[in-house]
Amino acid sequence: MPYQESPHYVDETPGTKYYCTCGESANKPYCDGSHETKNTGKSPMEFEVKSACRMVICDCGKSKTSPKCDGSHSE
C-alpha cells in the first residue's frame, strides 16, 4: 500500500502513538510493522498525544511537520 496524496483525520486519545512513515501499513495512519517485513529502511514516527484531539496525519511522506500534515501533498 503506497503513500496517498491525502491525509488521515483521526480522533486521538492521550498516549504514545506510532505513525507509519513507510507508506506500507495496512493500518494507516498507524504502524503495523510493514517497514520491517518489507525492508523499507524506515521506522515509525513516535508521537506523544498530550490530550484528546482531532489530528490530521500525513500520508504523502512530504510533510515537514510530520506526523502532522502541512499540506505538502497539494504542492
Task: Give me the secondary-structure topology.
Blueprint (H helix, E strand, L loop, with lengths): L7 E5 L2 E5 L14 H4 L7 E5 L3 E5 L18
Describe the overall structure.
There is one protein chain. The protein is mainly beta. It has one domain. Helices cover 5% and strands 27% of the residues. It has one helix at residues 34-37; strands at 8-12, 15-19, 45-49, 53-57. A two-stranded antiparallel sheet has the order 1-4. A two-stranded antiparallel sheet has the order 2-3. It is globular.
Summarize the structure.
This protein is mainly beta and 75 residues long. It has one domain (8-74). It has one helix and four strands.
Biggest pleated sheet: 2 strands, antiparallel
Counted by DSSP, the helix tally is 1
DSSP strand tally? 4
User: First CA to last CA: what distance?
Assistant: 22 Å
- Given the C-alpha coordinates, what overall shape results? globular
User: Low-confidence parts lasting 5 or more residues at pLDDT below 50?
Assistant: none
Q: Hey, roughly how much beta strand do the residues contain? A: 25-35%
Which structural class do you get from the secondary structure elements? Answer: mainly beta
Proportion of residues in helical segments: under 10%
